[in-house]
Specification:
heterodimer; A: 187 residues; Arc Repressor Mutant, subunit A; 5 helices; 8 strands; 14% strand; elongated; B: mainly alpha; 3 domains; 5 strands; WH_DNA-bd_sf (chain B); Vacuolar-sorting protein SNF8 (chain B); WH-like_DNA-bd_sf (chain B); Snf8/Vps36 (chain B)
């Protein structure tokens, strides 16, 4: 998990989070399907709330309250986490970052939703049709109150690529460093 | 009365007895006649009523419920039997049988989503959705009656009140085979503590006096039916919880 964002209110877990068997992958297939669906919903809601862009399949992630209910002394196992992330990817809510399948980008908003958000922001705030840098859009003083503020660099690069592909931006200065990107958002 | 002796007295007694009997027969006959008349009138009124309102009975759940209650009060049940004077007369008897069959079909169709326990409210919603075009809505009361009619078939269809987050929720238990008695007993144990505490195979064995093996087999069966979820995070013990679906 990589985020520095502190949400204004704590995340409210659904009732099923307090149900101990929720943390054990169910052996009976139909029960397991329902369980995984409930987990996918929960992970999406949690990542939206905390603006989480990445989840990694490593030991520290299992300390996240999302996957560990301290009050119940129950937590998701590594195998189960792999199952859950796979389901998340299958639901188009995440993407493996590499073939090794150890990290995912979490798309609590899809790339096209993010694209729409950026274009709307540019139009509403007078940044359309003028050159902006990646840094300005992602970390600038004008965007501190935006949902995309401090967006994960890799996800940001994907959103920009998506916009470019749709010809909704004009790339002025391509760069592998997202902060140095220069482009015009067509309004 | 002075005690009569001799032939004349005996004959008079016999005569009086005979007269009383006649009188009694006449009375009984007239009462029977009256009853038959009333019955005939009642029958024709009910027939008239039902013919007049047949469409309404088939269409309006609230009206149907009142009609069924009225008939039950009089000891006739035209809606729930397809054989007999009443339903032949009224032509409304098949209603609950047809509905029963549709409930069965629905439970089978919804098994993927709900497993063996279909909440009554959802069943009604699905039934009404399915026949939205027919414009003949059914109520929870109708479905309840229909499910009760299915009971003698032994298909495992029954209405059960399960504890839920707020009070109880009525569900149609549509286990394709009947829960065996062991499983039924354990399901009850679990249902009493739904969402509050789990049981272990040991608990079941202790409170029922069964062998550990029998308790384990029974719990495995409930897991395979999706009624019970397992929690294996304690090294030593597996905990069995009543299905989470009704909590979520």
């Amino acid at each position: 998990m990589s985020t520095n964002y502190a949400p204004p209110v704590p995340f409210e877990f659904p009732p099923i989070y307090s149900f101990p068997p929720f943390f054990t992958l169910q052996p009976h297939a139909p029960s397991r399907d329902k369980q995984v669906t409930a987990w996918v919903d929960l992970i999406r809601a949690y990542c939206t709330h905390h603006r989480v862009y990445r989840l990694s399949l490593n030991a520290s992630i299992l300390d996240l309250p999302l996957f560990r209910n301290a009050a119940l002394n129950r937590s998701v196992s590594r195998d189960m986490l792999h199952t859950l992330l796979t389901a998340l990817v299958k639901a188009d809510l995440a993407e493996w970052t590499s073939k090794s399948k150890t990290h995912v980008f979490v798309y609590w908003k899809s790339l096209s939703e993010w694209s729409d958000t950026l274009v709307a922001w540019a139009k509403d705030n007078g940044f359309a049709n003028t050159v902006v840098t990646g840094y300005e859009v992602r970390l600038g003083d004008y965007v501190t109150d935006q949902e995309f503020y401090a967006m994960d660099e890799a996800v940001f690069a994907k959103v920009v690529a998506h916009l470019d592909h749709q010809r909704r931006i004009v790339m002025i200065n391509p760069s592998s460093n997202v902060d140095e990107l220069g482009f015009k958002i067509i309004g | 009365m002075r005690r009569q002796v001799g032939i004349a007295g005996l004959q008079r007694q016999a005569r009086e007895k005979e007269q009383f009997r006649h009188m009694g027969d006449r009375l009984a006959a007239s009462q029977l006649q009256q009853l038959q008349d009333q019955m005939a009138q009642f029958k024709s009124s009910l027939e008239l009523f039902a013919t007049k309102h047949r469409a309404e009975i088939a269409r309006n759940p609230a009206f149907r419920r009142q009609f069924a209650q009225m008939c039950a009060g009089m000891g006739v049940d035209p809606l729930t039997s397809s054989k007999g004077v009443w339903s032949d007369l009224l032509g409304v008897g098949g209603f609950y049988y047809e509905l029963g069959v549709r409930v069965m079909e629905l439970c089978i169709a919804l098994r993927e989503r709900w497993g063996p326990l279909v909440p009554l409210a959802d069943a009604v919603k699905a039934l009404n959705h399915e026949r939205a075009s027919a414009a003949a809505a059914v109520s929870e009361d109708d479905v309840t009656r229909a499910v009760k009619l299915l009971a003698p078939l032994g298909g495992g269809f029954a209405l059960v009140d399960l504890p839920a987050a707020n009070g109880t929720v009525a569900v149609i238990a549509a286990v394709p085979r009947e829960l065996n008695l062991d499983a039924d007993r354990v399901a009850r144990m679990l249902g009493d503590a739904a969402g509050v505490r789990p049981v272990t195979a040991e608990d079941v064995a202790r409170s029922t006096g069964w062998t550990a093996d029998r308790a384990q087999r029974c719990l495995d069966l409930l897991v395979a039916d999706g009624i019970v979820w397992v929690d294996t995070q304690d090294d030593a013990t597996t905990y069995f919880w009543f299905s989470a679906e009704l909590l979520a």
